[in-house]
Amino acid sequence: MRIYTRTGDAGQTGVIGGRVDKDDVRVEAYGTVDELNCFVGQAMGFLDAEQFGDLLADLLEIQHELFDCGSDLALLKQELRPYKVTAEMVDRLEVWIDKYDAETPDIEKFILPGGTQASSTLHICRTVCRRAERRVVTLARTQPINEQVRRYLNRLSDLFFTVARLANSRSGSGDVEYARSAKVFRRK
């Protein structure tokens, strides 16, 4: 099989149900989700399998689900096939957030992204996820989307914040508070 097709040489790409310009807002949305998936893979490479086996399994599932998000975003018309991202997937992210948050120390102030390599990369995942969510919001202004994708990305960025803190906590590194932050978080 050849990797190159030459069909995109004129600046268009195939989506499910047609062709669009490569800088189309739809391509920007699923392309940013793809970028996020790459950073998730990088973060996984920084996590020790023995110490973070549970998180690695969850992140692998998230990688599959990010492909589902991209697939739903590449769909021009829902009539072509059912959506893949569901409300149950969003609900499960909330369960994971609660589970991992219970392992982290309370915070009162904003924290600086950083600490371990894994934590730093998971913070990158959080910010790229937020950008993907913004691209999906822009897409939804003009074209129909699977609303569960937007909800999924919103919740996923919260999970990345939580597991970035978890990576520091389990590694004994701890978070660094933003020195000029007011108290913005409530106690658990």
From TrEMBL:
Record-listed E.C. numbers: 2.5.1.17
Could you tell me which SUPFAM superfamilies the record lists for this protein?
A: Cobalamin adenosyltransferase-like
Determine if Transferase is one of this entry's keywords.
yes
Q: Which reactions does this protein catalyse?
A: 2 cob(II)yrinate a,c diamide + reduced [electron-transfer flavoprotein] + 2 ATP = 2 adenosylcob(III)yrinate a,c-diamide + 2 triphosphate + oxidized [electron-transfer flavoprotein] + 3 H(+); 2 cob(II)alamin + reduced [electron-transfer flavoprotein] + 2 ATP = 2 adenosylcob(III)alamin + 2 triphosphate + oxidized [electron-transfer flavoprotein] + 3 H(+)
Pathway annotation: Cofactor biosynthesis; adenosylcobalamin biosynthesis; adenosylcobalamin from cob(II)yrinate a,c-diamide: step 2/7
The answer to whether the entry has keyword Oxidoreductase is no
Q: Which UniProt keywords apply?
A: ATP-binding, Cobalamin biosynthesis, Nucleotide-binding, Transferase
Q: Where is the Cobalamin adenosyltransferase-like domain?
A: 3-166
- Quote one Gene Ontology molecular function term: ATP binding
Q: Which Pfam families match?
A: Cob_adeno_trans (PF01923)
Tree of life domain = Bacteria
Q: Name one GO biological process term.
A: cobalamin biosynthetic process
NCBIfam families reported in the protein's UniProt record: PduO_Nterm
Q: Which family does it belong to?
A: Belongs to the Cob(I)alamin adenosyltransferase family.
Provide the assembly information.
Homotrimer.
Protein name per Swiss-Prot or TrEMBL: Corrinoid adenosyltransferase
